[in-house]
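Justification of resources, computational component.

The compute hours requested in this renewal are based largely on the per-chain cost of generating structure records like the one below. Each record pairs the submitted sequence with a full structure-token output. That output is archived, and it is also reused by downstream analysis tasks.
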Amino acid sequence: MKSESIFTLALVAFFCLSVVWIPADCTASESILPISVNSSGIKWYSYEEGIERGKEEKKNVFLNFYTQWCGYCKKMDKETFANSSIIAYLNENFISIKVNSDKERQIANYYYVNGLPTSWFLSKEGSKISSLPGYIPSDMLINILKYIHTDSYKKMNFRKFMKK
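The structure output for this chain reads:
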């Protein structure tokens, strides 16, 4: 059942989101929005601190892999991660981690990051649940966050969850 849920989540990412893995509008001179730790945005942690906090606080972990040259990473920062519902849901229910794939290649390799942005979801114990490659709009991400946070991925596939 769990593998069916993970497979469905991957299919949603591939078919429904029109995922583009490596953006064409990326330039090395552009910079990504700074990692936010203030009260008006998502509280992002470093990888080590976030993994530890997830275990201590018994919260699922949301990992976002990015680089400074990635156009869709910037788009996700400006649109998805600026959405007030996403900010509130992540800050309340997840430990959020941002990983620069260029600077932290070992971590990116461990999570098989081949395209950007890539998002990973980890359990409260730190085990891998699933990943989503590409840009995720806020209306889709909020549903995926709820699916993961409520542990619905253990009981049903994403399609069934969305029908409820």
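The mean pLDDT is 83. Helices lie at 2-16, 47-57, 71-80, 84-93, 105-110, 138-149, 158-163.
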